[in-house]
Amino acid sequence: MASVMDTIYARARAGKKRITLPEADDVRTVVAAQRIVEQGLAEVILVNSRERIAAAAAESSADISRCRIEDPAVSPKREEYARQFFELRKHKGITLDQAREMILDPLYFGCMMVYSGEADGQVSGATHSTADTVRPALQILKTAPDCKLVSSFFVMIVPDCPYGENGVFVYADCGLVINPDPDQLAEIAIQSAKSMQNLLGLEPRVAMLSFSTKGSGKDPIADKVIEATKIAQQRRPDLLIDGEMQADAALVDWVAKRKAPSSPVAGRANVLIFPDLNAGNICYKLTQRLAKASAYGPILQGLRKPVNDLSRGCDADDIVNVTAITAAQASY
Questions:
Q1: C-alpha dihedral (168, 293, 199, 142), degrees to nearest 10
Q2: Is residue 306 scored above 60 in pLDDT?
Q3: Which CATH number goes with the domain that contains 245?
Q4: With 322 labelled, which of 14, 40, 45, 190 sits at a CA distance of 20 to 30 A?
Q5: Could you report the per-residue pLDDT of 186-238, keeping only the tens digit for each?
Q6: Which residue intervals of 90-181 are DSSP H helices?
């Protein structure tokens, strides 16, 4: 388990990226900020009211002296960012006055810092919903040139597990896209393979999961996965992507030999793509609780620059880990 996060921490330290934390009025955030700086994972930019940041630091005795502070209300960049945001959103009916008001929100101000090159990524969600975290990222940063949608994945680390990559997996999508169509599901598979390669440095072996293996079940639900598999294979023939297959066929060698003997993925998959959010979310939580797995995410993929979400039940350690992941993402 330590080796995976060690890899991510090493990538973060090497990248020396600047990460905005817009929920800097929360004690967990300022405690995490101190640890991030002390461990050399990133340069931290605390975005919020200076008074609120100071109050959170005083309450937690956090040392934020090495962090940069940006107060949207008094920032010299405020008008510049408002005008940039207006230009990005005027086609949606946003007025300049509305842009000036919205840019006072630390989540929007932080994303504008990332957009303008003043920062490399953002982490929020300790006090905001996923929708609040993702909305400014989509409005300002938008999808990467080679991506069609933003999705999410979890890095799952299962102790004492012989499957996957010695218990290391990428699960997707478990947190964002509710019911992807075949084209979207193919995109999620390709993005997740790239995330496994770039973030963890591991060769992805992608299983497109279903209740059916290689035509054993007949239903439109399985047909969607079959079609998505074909699309993903056509788009990225260089990647190991196969399906449709059941979870045991994806993971267990002897089952794979019976159910999918010619598959290059079956029995050795380390990237698991679920047919919808229902299946993905249920499975990651069961894995986390029943197998005592560590679950890092949801980590967003497909944006031009990385923005990541936290659980509102997170602690300071979670914020440190997600910031390290975000800094590592910003390095590739």
A1: 130
A2: yes
A3: 3.40.50.10750
A4: 190
A5: 999 999 999 999 998 899 999 999 999 988 878 888 999 999 999 999 999 99
A6: 96-102, 106-116, 130-136
Q: What is the mean pLDDT of residues 147-155?
A: 91
Residue pair 255/248 in contact by the 8 Å Cβ criterion:
yes
Confidence label for 1 from pLDDT (cuts 50, 70 and 90): very low
Domain at 59, CATH number:
3.40.50.10950
276 with 319, same domain? no
Domain shared by 158 and 43, yes or no: no
Q: Residue 113: CB partners within 8 Å, gap ≥ 6? A: 20, 45, 47, 70, 77, 81, 119, 122
CA distances (Å), 122 to each of 26, 50, 205, in order?
A: 16, 18, 29
Residues 201 and 275 in one domain: yes
Range of the domain at 202: 151-294
| Residues 68 and 104 placed together within one structural domain of the fold | yes
CA angle 299, 63, 72 (to 5 degrees): 65
d(CA 49, CA 260): 57
Answer whether residue 302 is part of any domain. Answer: no
Flag whether pLDDT at 2 surpasses 70.
Answer: no
pLDDT band at 243 (very low <50, low <70, confident <90, very high): confident
